[in-house]
Amino acid sequence: AQSVTQLGSHVSVSEGALVLLRCNYSSSVPPYLFWYVQYPNQGLQLLLKYTSAATLVKGINGFEAEFKKSETSFHLTKPSAHMSDAAEYFCAVSEPGNQFYFGTGTSLTVIP
Amino acid sequence: DAMVIQNPRYQVTQFGKPVTLSCSQTLNHNVMYWYQQKSSQAPKLLFHYYDKDFNNEADTPDNFQSRRPNTSFCFLDIRSPGLGDAAMYLCATSRDRGKDTEAFFGQGTRLTVV
Predict the structure, then answer these.
(1) Beta strands of A15-94 (E only): which ranges?
(2) Do A46 and B90 touch (CB under 8 A)?
(3) Residue A90 and residue B106: Cβ atoms within 8 Å?
(4) Chains A, B: CB contacts under 8 A, how many?
(5) Which of A98, A105, B18, B19 could form a disulfide with B13 if both were Cys (CB 3.0 to 4.6 A apart)?
(6) Who's near A10: CB < 8 A, 6+ residues apart?
(7) Residue A108 pairs with which residues in a beta bridge?
(8) Mean per-residue pLDDT for B23-28?
């Protein structure tokens, strides 16, 4: 069965610093991987997705993620954090024919 | 323009009183999902419809039911809400199931049980 693990339930960075949110997956077949962001009392918004076309995926708001099969990872990064990036971030996996499964989430705090 | 719309945004219901949450979509997607999200937790899939085909998760309580009368609408019925059912309920849609199609989420309905 597929699953994702997000290391670090809380991450704090200074404004302008690098953002790194970790996600590792477990899948018996090549997975489709997603990062979603959730602002307070809102639904989830897609940041980016990996669908095997390219290992480095660029998303909205300056975020990107790199798929590393050897490490079974799909970490989310942003070179310079902005105050508006403070939110909950979820990594998710789907397999062909299956539905989405979410990681436990990482709460990002940006310190001014 | 909102593509997945959930009503109401906030719902207060009494312990044991049936409640229905609604979701509509303008995307004409085949798949509609219902997730339950409790505070500081990941969304948990309750069930999903693939067209008219209902797919229940094994650990979804019988207290939760769903209806999809047409492509655009899907309802979540909680027959006898308990205090433990207080949560954010998220509706989502996707063009297809799995593969590379992302899910589009509504704003959610926050359910309070008193």
Answers:
(1) 19-21, 24-26, 32-38, 44-50, 56-58, 64-68, 73-78, 87-94
(2) no
(3) no
(4) 65
(5) B19
(6) A106, A107, A109
(7) A11, A87
(8) 96
Which of A30-34, A76-80, B35-39: highest mean pLDDT? A76-80
Tell me the one-letter amino acid at A6: Q
Tokens describing residue A27: 């899948």
In the block, which residue shows the tokens 């006898």?
B80
Closest partner residue to B110 (CB to CB) among A41, A90, A99 is A41
Pairing status of strand B73-78 against strand A24-26: unpaired
| pLDDT above 90: residue A100 | no
Q: Please, what is the Cα angle at A61 between A63 and B34, to 5 degrees?
A: 85
Q: Tell me the pLDDT tens digit for each residue of B48-95.
A: 999 999 999 999 999 999 999 999 999 999 999 999 999 999 999 998
